[in-house]
Amino acid sequence: METSGGGIQASLGGRYASALFGLARDAKTIDQVEASLATVRDAIAQSDDLRALTTSPMVSREGAVKAVLATADSLGIDATTKNFLGVLAHNRRLGQLPQIVRGFRELASRHRGETTAEVTSAHPLADDQVIELKQQLRQRVGRDVNVDLSVDPQLLGGLVVRIGSQMIDSSIRTRLNALAGAMKG
Predict the structure, then answer these.
(1) Core-most of 12, 52, 93, 140, by most CB within 10 Å?
(2) Which of 87, 106, 125 marks a domain boundary?
(3) What pLDDT is recorded for position 10?
(4) 16 vs 21: CA distance, rounded Å
(5) Within this chain, do residues 27 and 102 fall inside the same structural domain, yes or no?
(6) What is the pLDDT of residues 35-85, one digit of tens each?
(7) Residues 12-31: tens digit of each pLDDT
(8) DSSP states along 34-84
(9) What distance in Å separates the CA atoms of residue 16 and residue 37, rounded to the nearest whole number?
(10) Domain ranges, residue 30
(11) Do 35 and 102 belong together in one domain?
(12) How do residues 85-97 score in pLDDT, each as one tens digit?
């Protein structure tokens, strides 16, 4: 199995991501699993019920497995990812999904020789904004960068960009929190 560096495998979510990546690589389904994980991540962000399913200790193990498999079917998730979600639910590890998705994306990008930036914005970015962002990131990193876009209305405005372990936070929420902290002190 391809080594993934100390960073990813150091966490529980990273170990699950590495295991899923190994399965996907062997089955030659890396792209499908990556797309399925993005679909699941977006569904969790948009559904309070699904988010509760992944984080609530009150949901029984059997209930979580049944619900996550039904959700996977309704979202059209590939078989490898669906089975993996069932294992996570059975092991009570659905709360690790954000770290697993991030770790899997990083492994898949590295496997393809790419760099991927996770970009979170308060509102969906227009095509010309995405092109400009990619150009700025290319200048900063020194090579082409794919962007994985997500929306978090709580940011109010601005962007949070994560490339590997590096994070660039220009969100208005962070600026307001820093200002509030400075005014208190």
Answers:
(1) 93
(2) 106
(3) 63
(4) 8
(5) yes
(6) 999 999 889 888 888 888 888 888 889 999 999 999 999 999 999 999 999
(7) 888 999 999 999 999 999 99
(8) HHHHHHHHHHHHH-HHHHHHHH-TTS-HHHHHHHHHHHHHHHT--HHHHHH
(9) 13
(10) 5-106
(11) yes
(12) 999 999 999 999 9
Domain count, the chain: 2
Domain identity same for 28 and 96: yes
CB 158 within 8 A of CB 171: yes
- For tokens 């940011």, what's the residue? 155
Take residue 80 and report the two structure tokens written for it: 């490898």
**Rounded CA gap, 132 and 30, in Å?**
28
Q: Give the integer Cα–Cα distance in Å for 131 and 138.
A: 11
**pLDDT value at residue 175:** 76
Q: What is the pTM of this model?
A: 0.68
Q: By C-alpha distance, which of 132, 94, 133 is closest to 116? A: 133
- CATH assignment of the domain containing 38: 1.10.520.20
> What CATH number did the domain enclosing 144 receive?
3.40.30
Report strand pairing: 159-163 vs 145-151.
unpaired
Quick one: 78 and 118 in the same domain?
Answer: no
Do 67 and 122 reside in the same domain of the chain?
no
Total count of residues recorded for the chain: 185
Residues 118-172 pLDDT 10s: 899 988 999 999 999 999 998 888 888 888 888 888 888 888 998 877 888 887 7
Choose among 100, 111, 85: nearest CA to 25.
111
Terminal-residue alpha carbon distance, the chain: 51
